[in-house]
């Protein structure tokens, strides 16, 4: 049963240190790569969110042995050739990453499977993945010719393709690369704008030969991956909520440790710097597969800015919380080139604008983003989360600065990416 939650923090001061949960994108991929590699893969810092647990459940149904001990995972696999045909559907829950990346893997397997998710996944477009996979020879059928789940995949032999990405999407790129592992020939992907590169990094970590130069990614088919250890960094998309909280709450300072600083994900940091946020960063290990660092933020006199262009794919999940930040900045903030927000867990452009308006924000939607004028005092109200974890967390952070309580209609949805979110908020309240 969905649970609402009332938040009345009375404009607190925030102080303390937090280690946010493991990166969702890296956690998903650690299970997938461990499930296709030969040998014993170990994972530390795994995200125990609902989405990632659904990924584990999918691979267990394929016969992959996976043991979970807290945030440590052990995966035993002899490669895709030994996968078993599942007797039940592979349920992906709310996870677009699981659904889309699994399509790429399953297309080149030797099993027949059916993928299905929750009501949110049923509305999210899948043709952007299925079309290039079909060009490779994939046999995929589904609702409205594969536009939506449920989707049935008959694994088969695939042929490599040379594909130009119409829009920046790490999920589409990753699905093609995962299909390319088992395809005949060399798969080439051409990106106009750089998207998240976790898949490319992890392919190298598992021993694959892959090149990525000037926006052109090339992967030779027929490579066998070898088990390894994956250290999952803290998720910068989760950290973003506390980065914003620390800058907009009065007399505050928050330190976030072990945050992933992959350059394809650090758009949030660049925007905060542009908006005059008080922030310092200490790099832990830049040579690691996924670089990490410690970020400290404090209360700031923020300035409005324009957020658009090639930075958007590097902060697409952070736009809801950036919109809240903009309500407290001096002047106008314009978010543009963000049409992709319309096909996330919900239409995030409409959702963000509608919910922040309830709080008193001066915000209007545009075709590809929103315009926010600030600073504006915010007042408590009921926030509809739409079952979207990032809208839920945006509402919860807003409660730190509103006059009066905020009621979240569905607080449970936050567990998708951040199961300990409310405990961590409470930990920094002084």
From TrEMBL:
All copies of domain Enolpyruvate transferase, residue ranges: 13-424
Q: Where does phosphoenolpyruvate bind?
A: 24, 96, 124, 171, 348, 390
Task: Name the InterPro entries on file.
Answer: Enolpyruvate_Tfrase_dom, Enolpyruvate_Tfrase_sf, EPSP_synthase, EPSP_synthase_CS, RNA3'P_cycl/enolpyr_Trfase_a/b
Q: What is its main location?
A: cytoplasm
Q: What catalytic activity does the UniProt entry give for this protein?
A: 3-phosphoshikimate + phosphoenolpyruvate = 5-O-(1-carboxyvinyl)-3-phosphoshikimate + phosphate
What does the entry list as the binding residues for 3-phosphoshikimate? 24-25, 29, 169, 171, 317, 344
Which UniProt key words apply to this protein? Amino-acid biosynthesis, Aromatic amino acid biosynthesis, Cytoplasm, Transferase
> Coiled-coil annotation: which residues?
none
User: Which EC number(s) are documented for this chain?
Assistant: 2.5.1.19
Pfam hit, one = EPSP_synthase
> Which superkingdom is the protein from?
Bacteria
Metabolic or biological pathway, per its Swiss-Prot or TrEMBL entry = Metabolic intermediate biosynthesis; chorismate biosynthesis; chorismate from D-erythrose 4-phosphate and phosphoenolpyruvate: step 6/7
Q: Which GO terms fall under biological process for this protein? A: amino acid biosynthetic process; aromatic amino acid family biosynthetic process; chorismate biosynthetic process
Q: Where in the cell is it found?
A: Cytoplasm
Do you know which HAMAP family this protein is assigned to? EPSP_synth
Q: Which family does it belong to?
A: Belongs to the EPSP synthase family.
Q: What does this protein do?
A: Catalyzes the transfer of the enolpyruvyl moiety of phosphoenolpyruvate (PEP) to the 5-hydroxyl of shikimate-3-phosphate (S3P) to produce enolpyruvyl shikimate-3-phosphate and inorganic phosphate.
What NCBIfam families does this protein map onto? aroA (TIGR01356)
Question: What is the protein named?
Answer: 3-phosphoshikimate 1-carboxyvinyltransferase
- Organism source for this protein? Viridibacillus arenosi FSL R5-213
